[in-house]
């Protein structure tokens, strides 16, 4: 992969306002992380596991206008795709609603990627105070989906 291709890739990622992007083939691995305005561009051939780490991300929650930022946590998208609050594309009976209590491991929705519905599970416990993504909306990797208190 040459430098011009990398420049074009960075430009496309920024134009589409993506926060993270990862590309991997048999020879190269490129990971872009704009969450902290740092870019990681490992382009060396893969060796061993082929995994590279990007800059650490600050997971602290900003204080929102309702004053719930201090103890609020989020459940984030585990992949890129289309988020649904139930298995069907027509919203009739969402799995979770604002005010529901969830536990770690509970299914809170689905992300459709490559025509496969993947369960989104909670990694936090508490009461849902906000659903940040509409049913049928596209999500990015690690994008907050629901806010839990």
Task: Describe the overall structure.
Residues 74-149 form the Lipoyl-binding domain. This is Acetyl-CoA carboxylase biotin carboxyl carrier protein subunit. It comes from Staphylococcus marylandisciuri. Residues 41-60 have a biased composition (Polar residues). The protein has 149 residues and is mainly beta. The protein has one helix and ten strands, in the order H-E-E-E-E-E-E-E-E-E-E. Helices cover 9% and strands 32% of the residues. It has one helix at 3-15, and strands spanning 20-24, 29-33, 73-76, 81-84, 101-102, 107-113, 116-121, 126-131, 137-139, 144-148. It folds into two domains: 1-55, no CATH class; 73-148, Beta Barrel (OB fold (Dihydrolipoamide Acetyltransferase, E2P)), CATH 2.40.50.100. The protein starts with a helix and ends with a strand. The radius of gyration is 18 Å and the shape is elongated. Mean pLDDT is 76; it is low at 37-68. The chain has a four-stranded antiparallel β-sheet with strand order 3-10-8-5, with no helix packed on it. The chain has a four-stranded antiparallel β-sheet with strand order 7-6-4-9, with no helix packed on it. It has a two-stranded antiparallel sheet with strand order 1-2.
The largest sheet is: 4 strands, antiparallel
Order of helices and strands: HEEEEEEEEEE
Give the termini distance in whole angstroms. Answer: 45 Å
Beta-strand fraction estimate? 25-35%
The number of domains is 2
What Rg, in angstroms, do the CA atoms define? 18 Å
Number of helices: 1
Overall CATH architecture of the largest domain: Beta Barrel
The 3D shape can be described as: elongated
Q: Could you give the order of strands across the largest sheet?
A: 3-10-8-5
For this structure, what is the CATH class of the largest domain?
Answer: Mainly Beta
- Low-confidence segments: 37-68
Helix/strand/pairing category = mainly beta
Q: Determine the mean pLDDT.
A: 76
Give the fraction of residues assigned to helices: under 10%
Pfam family, one: Biotin_lipoyl
Organism: Staphylococcus marylandisciuri
Region (Disordered): 34-76
Protein name: Acetyl-CoA carboxylase biotin carboxyl carrier protein subunit
């Amino acid at each position: 992969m040459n430098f011009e291709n990398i420049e074009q890739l960075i430009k496309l990622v920024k134009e589409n306002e993506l926060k993270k992007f990862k590309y991997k083939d048999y020879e190269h691995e490129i990971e872009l992380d704009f969450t902290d305005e740092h870019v990681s561009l490992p382009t060396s051939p893969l060796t061993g596991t082929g995994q590279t780490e990007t800059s650490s991300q600050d997971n602290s929650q900003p204080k929102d206008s309702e004053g719930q930022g201090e103890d609020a946590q989020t459940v984030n998208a585990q992949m890129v795709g289309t988020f649904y609050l139930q298995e069907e594309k027509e919203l009739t009976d969402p799995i979770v609603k604002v005010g529901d209590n969830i536990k770690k491991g509970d299914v809170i929705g689905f992300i459709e990627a490559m025509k496969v519905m993947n369960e989104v599970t909670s990694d936090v416990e508490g009461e849902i105070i906000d659903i940040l993504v509409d049913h049928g909306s596209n999500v990015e990797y690690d994008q907050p989906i629901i806010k839990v208190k």
